Every structure is written in structure tokens, then in C-alpha cells.
Amino acid sequence: MRKGRAFWQGVEIALFLFFSLIKLIIEKMLAKIKEKLKIVSSFFRARELSEQAALVATILAFVSILAVFLLVINFVLPKTRVEVRVSGPEKAKCGEEIIYTVTYKNTGNVILEQPELTFHHPTFSLPEKTLVETKSLGNYFYPKEEKTFEFKTRLFGAKGEKREVKTWLTYSTERKKAPAMTEVVAFSTLISETPIDLILDIPAKIPISPKTETEFIFRIKYLSLIEPAISNLKLVVNFPSDFKFKESKPARTEKQNWQIAKLEKLESGELEISGTFPREEKLDKELDFMGQLLINLQGEDVLLKEVTTRSITYEPIFLLTQKINGQEKYSPYPGEKLHYQIYFKNIQDKPLRDLVLTTVLEGNIYDIFTIETPSGKFKMGDNSISWDGEDIPQLRYLLPGEQGEAEFWVRLKDDYKPKDLTETNVLIKNRVILAGFEAEFRNQVNSKITISQEGYFRDKYGFFENSGQHPPQVNETTYYTIVWKFGNYYNRVEDVKIKAALPDEVHFNAVKTTHGEVKVIRKAEVESLYPEIPTGFKFEKPLYQEMNGDDVKYLQIILKSEVSYLYPENVGASGHFGPTTLKSVKGFQLKYKEEILDPQNLKEPTGYVDELTRLKLNELLIKGIPSGPTEVVWEIGEVDPGIGVLEDPWIATFQIAFTPQAAQRGKEAILIHDVTASAKDRWTGMFVNSNNEFIDTTLPDDPTVRGEGKIR
């Protein structure tokens, strides 16, 4: 206490001495000023001026002296001053290209030598050039001179974060050669949105078995709306500590981290993680999951998006599973007919009575008017199908360990057009509800690609000037325009190729295209491998056991050649899909496993002639058809969803020259054979294809020729 009091007493004495000294200095200054004023006043009185006039004159004299002093300071003495202004968007989307404008003005009266501007882009940005840019303003920066510069960059980070730019100017002067620097000027931009969808596909309730380990699969999905593409991405997934990781698709690069090399605009992806919960896992326990998408910039991981979800464990009464067309994981094609089989099993120790099973279909691509349910009841409006004990006996009384089945059929729309980009990466979903318990099943739908082929003598698009006569004449050349239009509905596709063969009398002349590259490949003519199958025939519908018809007959002809060790010589092509045909189809699928089974993640053949099996069969048919010496191939690469639906189709057009032979006189001639398009769906990993018919000299797309196409 004594030490504290002594301290404050010392402070009081010091303050008293300080203010006393200040007072003394002020009093002396005032005395000197008063003395000087008396001298000036005496000077004016000596010249017989009044006291008031002398005072005014004295004041004017001081004002004049002050004005001269200020004039010298501002206009005579050298002054260095630079005005700096930075402008740019106050808000910007993550990944969006923005422009900052920097203006420098020399507001002093000194010439600045070797001026150099430094602009520091925000941390965690992708500038057009380098993170720190320098620009010379020339050898000299003159007074009143002004210069403006623009800097482009893309900001990255989570919504709500700020990014700051900084700029300054270094220079020297004639008097001071050592470099000087202006003040650092800063400008901040707020990240208003991160246009990336990140979804944790995890149910609100997780079924747990108290007796055994419980297998559990969850997914995290992502979709980028950032343009252009972004690279060096990483997915980080945090799951409960008692969840035992087993495997993931794709495989992880390090513990709980998954690398994404590149993500294009509208490109999506899915990470599937499988593992187990221990049998002692508690019921009604809250489980937290988190997913993060990060980008690596300047050697650091920057968070772009984060999503969390919480689930609760419960003990299920039923085991609910489902198959579509005989497969648990099935990716259907638009227009395909789907056979749903829903299985329910009592996993409790006591029987269950008077159950009602309901499934609800969700997805605009379902054609609900094609629903077939022999025993169930379909309800229009909520798109639900229900079964009770009168429809399925097991729903009336289900013993412990007993399993029942419900089934229905529905077709997907063949030409459903997405309304906007939110309807890309298409899923079909159905919820299965039984006695208050619910399970949701999701299946990815393959994209629909389209290819159209048009032919013109009088080119309505103006791509080429065609010459010659139409109808064409023997031994005289006529030029035609062929137009291909490619569209892609739902998902991003890659490795897109469009092909068509030209007859012997037709030659490729010139090409124009908006995307990709058109090539001309010359091939040797081949003979048909299957003369019993009509030229131009294609497998276009699914085939399965107990079917009958020509499609089955032609299938058997190919199987006898491709898997003869499974199809006995004494068994003919009857057109009936029996056990021998089933066994042979499975052998055919194993033979071409990489093209049929692997893309569908199937380990065993199904015997069901699905889309990929038909694609391979048609490929064998094409190999066996005389295709002529020339094939036109349009290679596009990758195509975004919505092309030809939400945007104009991509177009390739080329000019051909046709010189008819004498044997063709009086007949219509083919100018180009059927065109086929193929691609790989990035969303499903499956192959998709489309085709359009040949064009002959009748030119159905050209109204000016009126269908006249017989050679003269």
C-alpha cells in the first residue's frame, strides 16, 4: 500500500512540474510577441497613424508574411504525393473471374523516376498471371499524370469469407535516389456463394443389429457449377469413430481423404464408402458425419464447401432389399422397361401379422401410365403402390426368418427433356414402407444421346455450294451436304464418337464442324459373317428366357458362331429362348466380360440380353456387313448435359460427291449409311449409344427436291 501511494505522489509532482514549465514558456512567448507588436505599433504612430490603423496594418503584415510562406511551401518547395485508388466487386462467387482496377495519379510537383507498381492478389486465389504482379509506369511519372491497370483473378474459399488485395508504388526522385514507397492500399471482396453442391447421402435412421456386426454403406455426392474447370481438389470425410472402414469406390488416397484431379463445370461424382458398426453399438445413439471439399492453393488446403448430418441408430424389424431387372445395382436407360422385385424379411423372433407394404416412386422420368402391378394397388397422385395380406400371403402372417416378395413393372420415359440443369445427373428413387419402417433405394439413370442425319442438295444452312444435277445422272458428279446433329440429355458423357460409312460411288469432299474433329477412314470391304441375318437388322429390345421370335432366332445364329462350345451343332436356331440359349448367352457375356459385365460391376453373367449385350451383338453384325471403302468418324470427346435440349445441338457438316454407275440407272441410291453415336456416361460409368437411318437420293429433309431421287 505504501509503495502504491508513493508512486502516485511521484506522478502528481511530475505533472505539476510539467504544466508549470509549459505555462512559463507560453508566458515568455506572449511577452515577446507583445514587445514586437509595440515596436511595430510605434513605427506606425511615428508616421502619425491612429492606434486602430496601426493594429490593422500590423495584422495585415503578418497575414501577408504567412501567405508568402504558404505559397513557398506549396508551389516552390518540392512536394512528393501519389493518389492510389483500387476498385473491384465487393461481392463475388467462388471461382468466378473478377477484375480489379488500380489507378495511380501523381498529385505532387516532383517527377517520379523508375516508378513500379506492385499488386498482390488475394491469398487463396488463382490470378491470370502470378500471385504478385509488378508493372512499370515507364521511366518517369510526371505531375498530374494518371495511369490505370487491370488485374484478373478468381477467388476461392467458403461462403462468407473475405479476400483482400494490396497495392503500392515504389519510385525514386532526382534528389533522392534511394527507392521510396507509397502507403499500401487494400481492397476486400466477400465470397457471396460457393457454386458447388455437396450432399451426404445418409438416412436419418441407421438400422443396427444387436447380435451381429452391421454393414453400412453411405455416399457423398458432388456437382460443380464453377467455370472453367478447377483442379487439385480433395474430399475429406469424417465418420463416427466406431464405424469400421472397409472399402470405398473410388479408393482413398490417404486416411479419410480422396483426391479429385479435375472437376469440369456441371461435372459430378460420387464417393461410396462401406464399412461396419460393431454388434455392441448402442440403439438411439446419435452419429455425426461430415464431408468437406477442399482445393489446394499455394501449398495449403482451402475449404470450399462443408456439409454435416446426424443420424440415429435403431433396431429394425425387417430386412428390406430390392432388385431391378434381376440386379441390386442397376442403371437403366431412358425408355427401358423395369422389373422391380421388393423383398421383405422378418428378422425378429416373433411372427408379424396384417402388414401393408407400400412403395412410392419419385422421379419425373418415370412413365407412371405404364405401371403394371398384377397384385398391388396403384394410386395416381402420390405414385404409390400398396400390397396387403389379400395380395401377398406373407403380409398376412410373416414367420420369424420368413421372406416375402412384391413385384411390379414400369417403363422410363424415352424422351423426357430436362427443364434446367438441376435435372441433370438423373436418379430414380423409390421409398419402401412397411409397418412404419422405411428404406430408400436410388438408381442412377444413363444419359440419352441423340444423333440425327440430314441430307441436302440445296443446302438450307448455307454451309456449302453444291453443284451438279439432281436427280443425279450416270457418270456425272453431284455434290450434297450431310448434316449431323448431336445431343446429350442428362449426364456428362465422354469418348463421344459418331460414325457412318459411305458407299463406293460416294467420296468425301469437305468438312465444317463446331466441335471436335471429323476424320475419314478408309477400310477394306468385308463379306457378311451371318448371311442368314437380314442386312440392316439390329437388336433393339431386351431378350430373356421363354421369349420367342426372329430376334431370338438371330441371337441363336450368332451364339452358334461365338460360343459354339456351349451351343450344340444338333440344336438349331428355333427362335425359342430356352435353357441352351440362356447358357450360351451367359457364355457370350463372359467371353466379352470387359465390354458387358465390367462396366456394370457384375461378377457373374445374367443371361439377360441387356443394353450392353445388344451393343456387342450389333457390333458383330456391323463387322459382318459390307460397309464400303470409306467411313466418316466425328470425334467430339466430352459433352455437357443439356446439349440439344437446353442449348443448341453440336453440329458437324460435310460435303460428299456422288457419281452414279450405269447399273444404278432408274434406281434410288444410298448416299450415306446409318449413322451411330456412342459414348461413356461419366455419371453411371455405362456406355450409351444412338443411331439414325441412312440417307438416299430422295433426300427427305430437302423440300426442294420433292422426293425425286431415281438416277437418270
UniProtKB/TrEMBL annotation:
The source's domain of life comes to: Bacteria
**Matching InterPro entries, A to Z?**
PGBD-like_sf, PGBDSf
* Keywords of the record: Membrane, Transmembrane, Transmembrane helix
Q: Where are the transmembrane segments?
A: 6-26, 53-77
Asked if the Swiss-Prot or TrEMBL record annotates the protein with the keyword Transcription, the reply is no
> Which SUPFAM superfamilies does the record associate with it?
PGBD-like
UniProt protein name: DUF11 domain-containing protein
Which species is this record about?
bacterium (Candidatus Gribaldobacteria) CG_4_10_14_0_2_um_filter_36_18
Query: Lineage of this protein's species?
Result: Bacteria, Candidatus Gribaldobacteria
